[in-house]
């Protein structure tokens, strides 16, 4: 699974389930900080990967990472768990939220990756 798609999946899952805006994620295993911002409104995902200088988004469950040229499916479940499939790598994966961390399991590589998430509450617009 491509690293930027993995990081985007972690960010989208966290933003969706916690109803917050994600500012960045840090992958512990590779010691990689991904500057990626993600907001989810209903099923609409709008994000920007600052490292790849590209947009990330779509309508859940169908997502696209413009920098990687990668499309993938991310299906949110009911208990802070998502399952997905990355088309380019032909791999299934799962995403589980635990406190302020996200675990992504790549089924093809049989590897797990843990992300620390920086986030903020959604901005409320007074009207």
What does this structure look like?
This protein is mainly β and 127 residues long. Helices cover 13% and strands 56% of the residues. The protein is built from 1 helix and 11 strands; from the N terminus they run αβββββββββββ. The N and C termini lie far apart (43 Å).
Give the rounded overall mean pLDDT: 94
Gross geometry:
globular
Low-confidence stretches: none
| β-strand number | 11
Give a quick account of the main beta sheet: strands, pairing sense, barrel closure.
Answer: 11 strands, antiparallel
How many helices? The count is: 1
Percentage of residues in strands: over 45%
In the sheet with the most strands, the strands line up as 2-1-11-10-9-8-7-6-5-4-3
Summarize the helix and strand pattern as letters: HEEEEEEEEEEE
Helix amount: 10-25%
Blueprint of the fold:
Blueprint: H1 3-18, E1 20-27, E2 32-34, E3 36-41, E4 44-49, E5 54-59, E6 62-65, E7 70-76, E8 81-86, E9 91-98, E10 101-106, E11 111-121
Antiparallel strand pairs: 1-2, 1-11, 3-4, 4-5, 5-6, 6-7, 7-8, 8-9, 9-10, 10-11
């Amino acid at each position: 699974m491509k690293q930027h798609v993995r990081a985007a999946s972690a960010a989208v899952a966290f933003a969706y389930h916690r109803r917050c805006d994600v500012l960045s994620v840090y992958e512990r295993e590779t010691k990689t900080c991904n500057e990626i911002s993600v907001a989810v409104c209903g099923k609409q995902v709008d994000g920007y990967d600052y490292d790849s200088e590209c947009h990330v988004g779509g309508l859940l469950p169908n997502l696209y990472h413009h920098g990687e040229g990668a499309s993938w499916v991310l299906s949110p479940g009911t208990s802070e768990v998502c399952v997905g499939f990355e088309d380019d790598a032909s791999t299934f994966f799962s995403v589980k939220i635990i406190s302020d961390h996200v675990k992504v399991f790549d089924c093809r590589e049989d590897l797990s990756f843990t992300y620390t998430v920086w986030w903020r509450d959604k901005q409320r617009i007074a009207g």
